[in-house]
């Protein structure tokens, strides 16, 4: 199923593509199809340990969602794969990326806003804190 949905002849992946593929491999693993070499290759293609951990989380989430789906319904492997991996494709703006759409990835895998830098003209860092105001 994985080979039919994704091309395995790739040189590099961005984080979103890697997460999508890792999620799909997790679903496949839960359905009894092993793609350990492809998964290792995807993880190793990430440039930072943060991105590698995000890809690993996506893999685990794929496994968990597939196990849950199989437990809750009597769907066959093809139906579980179709719903979780090949689900309805949605086009959205970059800032409005859904956490539950096609990839069915949890909000925990979203980009952490704490890492965003403050605006350059923001003076909040040097202003008096609110609790010191009368």
From TrEMBL:
It comes from the Archaea. InterPro entries: DUF8057. Residues 110-134 have a biased composition (Basic and acidic residues). Residues 91-134 are annotated as: Disordered. This is Uncharacterized protein. It comes from Halapricum salinum.
């Amino acid at each position: 199923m994985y080979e039919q949905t994704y091309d395995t002849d790739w040189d590099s992946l961005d984080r979103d593509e890697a997460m999508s593929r890792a999620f799909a491999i997790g679903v496949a693993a839960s359905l009894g199809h092993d793609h350990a070499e492809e998964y290792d290759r995807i993880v190793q293609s990430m440039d930072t340990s943060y991105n590698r951990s995000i890809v690993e989380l996506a893999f685990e989430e794929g496994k968990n969602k597939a196990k849950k789906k199989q437990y809750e319904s009597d769907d066959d492997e093809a139906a579980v794969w179709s719903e979780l991996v090949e689900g309805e494709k949605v086009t959205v703006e970059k800032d409005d990326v859904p956490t539950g759409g096609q990839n069915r990835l949890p909000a925990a895998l979203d980009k952490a806003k704490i890492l965003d830098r403050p605006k350059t003209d923001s003076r909040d860092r040097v202003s008096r804190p609110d609790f010191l105001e009368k």
